[in-house]
Write a structure and sequence with these properties.
It is a single chain. The protein is of the alpha+beta class. It folds into three domains: about 10-120, Acyl-CoA dehydrogenase/oxidase, N-terminal domain (Butyryl-Coa Dehydrogenase, subunit A, domain 1, Orthogonal Bundle), CATH 1.10.540.10; about 125-240, Beta Barrel (Butyryl-CoA Dehydrogenase, subunit A, domain 2), CATH 2.40.110.10; about 245-390, Butyryl-CoA Dehydrogenase, subunit A, domain 3, CATH 1.20.140. The chain is about 50% helix and about 15% strand. It contains 13 helices and ten strands. The protein has helices spanning about 10-25, 35-50, 70-80, 95-105, 110-120, 240-280, 290-320, 325-350, 355, 360-370, 380-390, 405-415, 415-425; strands spanning about 125-130, 145-150, 155-165, 170-175, 190-195, 200-205, 220-230, 235, 280, 285. It has a four-stranded mixed sheet with strand order 1-4-5-8, covered by helices on one side. Strand 2 and strand 3 form a beta hairpin. Helix 3 (about 70-80) runs antiparallel to helix 7, helix 4 (about 95-105) packs antiparallel against helix 6 (about 240-280) and helix 8 (about 325-350) crosses helix 11 (about 380-390). The chain is globular.
Amino acid sequence: MAWDFSTEPEFEAQLAWMRDLVREEILPLETLGLDFATYRRAIAPLQRRVKQQGLWAAHLPPDLGGQGLGQVKLALMHEILGATDYAPPVFGNQAPDSGNSELIAVAGTAAQKARWMEPLLAGELLSAFTMTEEGTGSDPTQLKTAAVRDGSDWVLDGTKWFISNADKADFHIVMALTDPEADPHRRMSMIIVPADRPGITVRDLGVMNDPEARNPIHTHSEVTFEGVRVPAENLLGERGGAFALAQTRLGPGRIHHAMRWLGVSRRAFDMLCERAVSKSVHGSTLADKQTIRNWVADSAAEMQATRMMTMHAAWKCDQVGAKAARNEIAMIKYHGPKVMYNVLDRAIQVHGSLGFSCDMPLEEMYRYARASRIYDGPDEVHREGVARRILRGYEPRETPTEHVPTRRAAAQARFAELLDAASVG
């Protein structure tokens, strides 16, 4: 099957419009130290412009309030928006809200879509995907937060860890243990929990790139549920179906992550190249030094390879679905962060102490990049999964398939007549 990542000229024009908006209107907001409320006011007119362009909530199909772009176009879009955390909310496709709207679109009832998804898509509500727990690593079968049925309610108890934007969320989609005696992958369910329910406690967490939890876009929290009651109809999808739902959400999301990482890489690469042609040492510009040229060449090649891998994963996802593209998606999940990290490291090095200082955005970008090897599953888990699936296609052999003496004997038998004629001749 031939690969085709092409898009029509009309969409190319929209991509150019996005680049201009990010560069001219969104990037300057980074420097102002805005709080969340002020940031929301600042981007409101930009959000209106995005809606006028028909680019709002592009991750969902038109019948669900989105633009139905498909993963290839979404990937190209996220590559541009990835340059700054401040951009995705302007386009209504920020995590975790974009993934949560997809979950409700896939599994929600008509009432749930009206109550939660439609306001989420409109930017009137914010959400949290409340799944992970401290100490469970990448094994969700160990999750302990439980939801017990009590009459017409679910009652939740437990503590969730490292939950994105829990301090801002109007509701949580909680992955909770509902059937402890079931098969390990049928024990969990997803439940919609309004954030204002009694018994919910949120503790903000400082992180490497935001030690004081002041980032207006992405914060992380510990969330504790103590006897939290919600109506039974808040169950999202079928009981015991949380694992399948989570994969529906996480697969395409990893493509978006990878393209946003390329956006970070491109921004760092531009800073690297600008510095190289601007500064001179020992009688010539940095751009004239072989080491710097190697950094530029290696960065360009690594970024291009990652881009092609990610676009192929997006294309395959569009063609045959996320499940059939598991290997491609997993490979970009562990390959993309390494490339981003390499490019950032070179950009900091070429800037010297200026790159290490807070007068350049590189140091914060560098700290932000480290988390990419952890969230949505650590790199090691994705590598292991890819290797396991690849190795299933091979069979053990006593004698290697490429063993030359064995191959020679088989070839001599097959071509005996040819060899005999050659010897006689």
